[in-house]
Amino acid sequence: MAFVPASPEDEARPAEPAEVAAAAPKWRGVRFGLSARLLWLTIAFVMLAEVLIFLPSVANFRKNWLMERLAAAQIASLAAQAAPNDAVPERLAQQLLQKAMVHSLAVRRGPVRVLVLQTAVPGMVQAHYDLEEANWLTLIGDALYAFISERDRLIHVIGHPDLSDDTVEIVMTETPLKTAIYNYALNILFLSIAISLFSATLVYLTLNWFLVRPVSRLTWNIVRFRENPEDATRVIQPSGRSDEIGVAQEELAAMQNELIAMLRQKSRLAALGLAVSKINHDLRNMLASAQLISDRLSTSTDPTVQKFAPKLISSLDRAIALAGETLTYGRADEAPPQRHRFLLRPLIDEVGESFGLPGDSRIKWVTDVGPALEIDADRNQLYRILTNLVRNAMQVLESAADLPKPVITVAARQDGDNLLISVADNGPGVPPRARANLFQAFQGSVRVGGTGLGLAISAELARAHGGSLWLDDSAPGATFCLKFPNPERPLSDSAAQNGNHGRGILAFSRSKH
User: Fold this and answer.
1) C-alpha–C-alpha distance, residues 456 and 442, integer Å
2) Coil vs helix vs strand at 178
3) What are phi and psi of 234, to 5 degrees?
4) pTM greater than the 0.85 cutoff
5) Local structure of 130: helix, strand or coil
6) Based on C-alpha coordinates, what's the Rg of the chain?
7) Structural domain boundaries of the chain?
8) Lowest CB count within 10 Å: 132, 198, 300, 486, which one?
9) Under CATH, domain 335-501 is a member of which superfamily?
10) pLDDT (tens digit, 9 = 90+) per residue, 276-323?
């Protein structure tokens, strides 16, 4: 028999104002939302960009301002050199120096340095700046230091204006330069603030329209939908956008619709379960009366009665068992498995005997299980699983009247730390309509009129053991495979006795009412 080697992997509409107000209490703690963060971050980033622009611009402003002073001083030196005999009247010299805003003026032609004009210097020179040798980092540092330097500081400046090839040296008070730099910085500050506000407003409005508002709409819809997930009017209406926001809206709408359908189904099933539990109580009493009558029929010597009485008794037993399973499934979760090690072959033989398969049944019973194969599981729960699988196989084969040699085969083997069990039949297989919900109660029945409770209960018991139950699609007929975690270790005498002594615990018996 082909055995399955392993288990597969486990498989907006806009919110109305009243609705928004109803959801508002959920968001009282949100005091610094996406919109506020976006606005302040945009302003901060624009201001940072302005600061990075401000440093080289203020350095360039200072350099140009000093170059203007050097050019004015050079013009003053040319005027002084035009005087007869280079004798410049003192009043004219003061006017020229005052116009150039310097205290002294010297010109250097090659190696010769000539002091052209000079007035009373109010103190000692405190700093020297050579504009010809300074790089941009030096210029930026000198410009920043001008903001914090002492007032009325005397500085010595050397530069080369474009009016001639002479190098001009001046001594001046730094106060006019500091005033000019302060005014320039204030202008840059006000301009930066205006640009930041304007840019931040544009970026904020754009991102708020295309990003923040759709995200907020998703958020409000999730809050509203959570308050009443069964209200279909609260499902978001996708805007039809083709970007990630549009995909999120469509997926959210699909999820909400699926959840609404699932909740409605659960509600109907809950109501149905309550009705079934009431009907089931009376039905079991009726079946008990019918069972008593069938017991009397079994003692009849009439050949016709003897022919049909076993089938009637078997049908009553199955009806009673099904009623019991229905109530069991509707109650709380199954009890945790009480695991112990026992021999698997006696349990499988017991399952076959409970259906009369090894005898004169039309269905052939084949077992491929080693006599020494052990399993660590809850014996009662494993019996229930195998009984459900074998019963399903029998019902399928009994309904296939044209099948010449119906066979049910149970096989098991150890695979590493797992034990694999398969229950296979050579019937027509599982219909495609039943495969999608195969292990769901009231949805996965493989035959007409079935409830699917057997497979649902079996899958639940398998998961409780840490295992799994699945259908092998590649095998002919229907082959259900069961995997149980089963680390190999020696079987104790007490476990072997428990394994054999437990025979018949879950065999079908008549319920007494």
Assistant:
1) 9
2) helix
3) -95, 5
4) no
5) strand
6) 48
7) 32-190, 335-501
8) 132
9) Histidine kinase-like ATPase, C-terminal domain (3.30.565.10)
10) 777 776 777 677 767 777 776 767 777 777 776 776 776 677 677 666
